[in-house]
Amino acid sequence: MKRQILIFLVSFVIATFCSIARAQETPTPNCVYDRARMLALDENQFDQDMKGGWRALSSTPGCNLAAADLLREYREAHHQTSGLLFWHEAQLRAFSGQYREAITLMEHSYKPADADKAGWNPYVDATIAFLRKDKPALEQAKSRLAIVPPPTGDKDMGPVVDGYMEVKFIDGTTRKIRWPMNIDVVDGLENCFDKSYTEAYENTCRQGAH
């Protein structure tokens, strides 16, 4: 179970720290990719390769929606119900202003309550509340996220000190991450509540800019 938590955190931090093209955009004719090759990738290659899979497409300016459509195609082709695949498609659509579609997808990304060890569900609740412009719901979700206890007893995870914990990753590197996971993202959504999701997701809002 501890190893599963670590793997989840590693995947989650990768998803958090690696850049997704976030600008609201008008699609361009440059969103060209090898569809057959993309659909033939396994889920890890398709979703977690920072220079391949859907991320390579989304990094091209103007291609967020093309990447979102690719994520949908991949899910359908592989009969996938992975919460992260739903989440990443949702984010791309939210970055492009498709809030209604994003909310529907985010609702498919919840974890079973007994499997949510890192506060994923409150984070989803907070994001959906932001997209709906429901500030009380956002504040309630943030309160639930803030009290999520850190995992204990794992040699690869240090104690939480001043809101951060050191995590030893599978590749041997160590990085400090904020705990609870994504509380900084939710801070940004709250700080920049009246802005677009694209703007509120950026670091300037997480650091308190309005």
Summarize the structure.
This protein has 210 residues and is mainly α. 53% of the residues lie in helices and 5% in strands.
Account of the 3D structure:
- The chain is mainly α.
- It has a single domain (2-149), classed as Serine Threonine Protein Phosphatase 5, Tetratricopeptide repeat (Alpha Horseshoe), CATH 1.25.40.
- The chain has 12 helices and 2 strands, in the order H-H-H-H-H-H-H-H-H-E-E-H-H-H.
- It has helices at 2-17, 35-40, 43-48, 53-58, 64-78, 83-95, 99-106, 120-132, 135-146, 183-191, 197-200, 203-206, and strands at 164-168, 174-178.
- A two-stranded antiparallel sheet has the order 1-2.
- Strand 1 and strand 2 form a beta hairpin.
- Helix 7 runs antiparallel to helix 8 (120-132) and helix 9 (135-146) runs antiparallel to helix 10.
- The longest helix is centred in the N-terminal third of the chain and has 16 residues, at 2-17.
- The radius of gyration is 17 Å and the shape is globular.
- The N and C termini lie far apart (40 Å).
- Mean pLDDT is 86; it is low at 1-8 and 13-25.
Explain the layout of strands and helices:
Layout: H1 2-17, H2 35-40, H3 43-48, H4 53-58, H5 64-78, H6 83-95, H7 99-106, H8 120-132, H9 135-146, E1 164-168, E2 174-178, H10 183-191, H11 197-200, H12 203-206
Antiparallel strand pairs: 1-2
Helix pairs in contact: 5-6, 6-7, 7-8, 8-9, 8-10, 9-10
